[in-house]
Amino acid sequence: MSQEKVDRYKKEKAGRKQMIRKQRVMNAVRKCVLTVAALALVGWLGYSAYDTYTANQEREVASVNYDAVNTYLQNLTVEENVD
Fold first, then answer.
1. In the chain, N or C terminus with fewer CB closer than 10 Å?
2. Does the reported pTM lie above 0.70?
3. Residue 1, SS3?
């Protein structure tokens, strides 16, 4: 081996633990980012499917009975005419 190769090997060996630690941290970060992206994709797909399902369902039509209000208003107009 030439002296350059020996020096390069020594430098690599000296920083090997730090390099391995850095690689492990980057792998963990990469896995976390991919997991979050996958969860977001699954959540979005689930929400879209639910929204599509509920959009196709029949909705109940609410009807309001205004008889009591109309009677009250008629009584008010009758009382105003009497006074």
1. C
2. no
3. coil
